[in-house]
Write a structure and sequence with these properties.
single chain, Rossmann fold, 307 residues, alpha/beta
């Protein structure tokens, strides 16, 4: 955040893990000094983490609160962090310090046996702000949600859940106010998360969803068709020599998990291990590396993401 000219931010990291239910979720919430800018970032798949991989392949569809069906593993991963995340996001929405909200949440959920539980919810009255930095004064109150790979899928579901809860009045604010607070969802190498009904129910959110796909990354083509009918929504951006450009062909589902992964591994091998420039396969695991997404994004001028 300091490299993006926002110093002195508060951040909270929330991690949950349950091997039996196949999820290991980590999210970081960042709040700017003036409390106008909030960023929610979900960690992507860790290559050595078997539970992360099991989260991805446990794709049995589950109903989403606002309608449609979504990837079961992704939904369980998000729901595991949501009780605390929801309270922190409520505090951020109301310009309250997220660190204070975290302390309240710990008392609420993790008080020792016999300890008194807090009776009053986190105040909805904004606290005085004394340490805002000049660059932040021009910003509107904004929430950005982001993630790579598995983290991108969780980012989309988190935004959709916020939309659904805003419609249900969970945040005690007008639905339009909560929805306008969500300024953008930026995902990188994101797999598909839901079916056609889920995509259509989130048409308005799709205007704020920017999916970035690096070259022939295999993950945006997953889950494969054999695991169910999934589809993307939102705006796709493809990599180019000049950073990111609007995509012309949305990523479509691969056919099978085994064959697609085999092709993806072979493509990575011919790209990075034994370079064979004349071999061009349709999918690649090598193109999924976050390093590729970071390098391409660095071609953009600092601050463009806030325009």
């Amino acid at each position: 955040m300091s490299r993006r000219r926002l110093e002195g931010c508060d951040y909270v990291e929330i991690s949950t893990r349950n091997d039996a239910l196949f999820f290991d979720t980590s999210a970081v919430l960042v709040q700017s000094p003036g409390r106008k800018l909030t960023i929610l970032s979900f960690r992507g798949t860790q290559p050595q983490n078997a539970i992360n991989w099991l989260t991805g392949v446990s794709a049995r569809a589950e109903y989403f609160p606002a309608g449609g069906k979504v990837h079961g593993g992704f939904q369980r991963g998000l729901r595991s962090t949501w009780p605390v995340l929801q309270e922190l996001l409520l505090a951020a929405l109301n310009a309250r310090p997220i660190c204070d909200a975290l302390a309240h949440s710990r008392e609420k959920y993790l008080s020792p046996c016999g300890a008194a539980k807090p009776e009053a919810p986190v105040s909805m009255v904004p606290a005085p702000i004394t340490d805002a930095i000049p660059e932040e004064k021009e910003l509107l109150p904004s929430l950005y949600i982001t993630g790579h790979s598995l983290g991108g899928a969780l980012a989309v579901l988190a935004a959709a859940l916020l939309y659904a809860q805003a419609d249900a009045g969970v945040f005690g604010r007008d639905r339009r106010q909560v929805r306008s607070w969500i300024r953008g969802v930026y995902t990188y190498g994101q797999p598909m998360v839901g079916d056609a009904a889920f995509a259509s129910m989130n048409g308005d959110l799709g205007k704020k969803l920017f999916r970035h796909v690096y070259r022939r990354d295999i993950v945006p083509r997953l889950p494969p068709r054999i695991m169910g009918d999934f589809m993307h929504f939102g705006q796709q951006y493809d990599s180019s020599e000049a950073s990111w450009m609007p995509g012309t062909r949305p990523a479509r589902q691969a056919i099978s998990l085994g064959l697609s992964n085999l092709v993806g591994v072979l493509s990575w091998f011919t790209q990075d291990v034994v370079p064979l420039q004349w071999v061009r396969l349709p999918f690649s695991w090598g193109d999924h590396s976050p390093l590729n997404y970071m390098r391409t994004s660095l071609e953009a001028a600092p601050g463009e993401e806030f325009d």
